[in-house]
């Protein structure tokens, strides 16, 4: 959607959302060199496929697009609302709380275990290992 809030009527997938949707005749059908139908049959198949696909898609779009747009618009509005007003504040609160708990835990470990580990380190630092080949 542009700045003027109107849809782009030429490029309708500017973000490439449906790049994986390949439904042109050439994407669906292909005859190897060893097996070709007559040219008139291939052209007729192409015309029938493209005509049916276009007509059916346009008919379904005209009949259903408003309903799906309404449903998906409401769904994404609800998701956005939940994300802004529930998820983000909850996550922020959790991060703040965990930060305090982490500081408290680190302080306790440093006060209680730090001296013990330092003492063991000093005792064990004088051990020397020699390997003799016999």
Relevant terms:
134 residues, 67% helix, mainly alpha, 2 helices
What is the averaged pLDDT score?
91
Order of helices and strands: HH
Which descriptor suits the 3D outline?
elongated
Query: Spans with pLDDT under 50 lasting ≥5 residues?
Result: none
Description:
This protein is mostly helical. It has one domain (25-124). The protein is built from 2 helices and no strands. It has helices at residues 25-28, 39-124.
Give the SSE layout:
Blueprint: H1 25-28, H2 39-124
What's this entry about, in short?
With 134 residues, the protein is mainly α. The protein is built from two helices and no strands.
């Amino acid at each position: 959607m542009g700045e003027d809030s109107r849809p782009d009527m030429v490029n309708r997938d500017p973000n490439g959302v449906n790049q994986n949707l390949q439904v042109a005749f050439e994407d669906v059908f292909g005859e190897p060199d060893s097996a070709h139908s007559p040219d008139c049959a291939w052209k007729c198949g192409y015309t029938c496929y493209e005509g049916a696909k276009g007509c059916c898609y346009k008919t379904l779009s005209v009949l259903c697009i408003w309903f799906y747009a309404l449903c998906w618009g409401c769904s994404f509005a609800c998701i956005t609302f939940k994300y802004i007003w529930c998820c983000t504040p909850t996550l922020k609160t959790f991060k703040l709380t965990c930060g305090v708990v982490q500081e408290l835990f680190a302080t306790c470990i440093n006060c209680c275990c730090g001296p013990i580990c330092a003492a063991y380190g000093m005792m064990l630092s004088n051990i020397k290992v020699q390997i003799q080949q016999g």
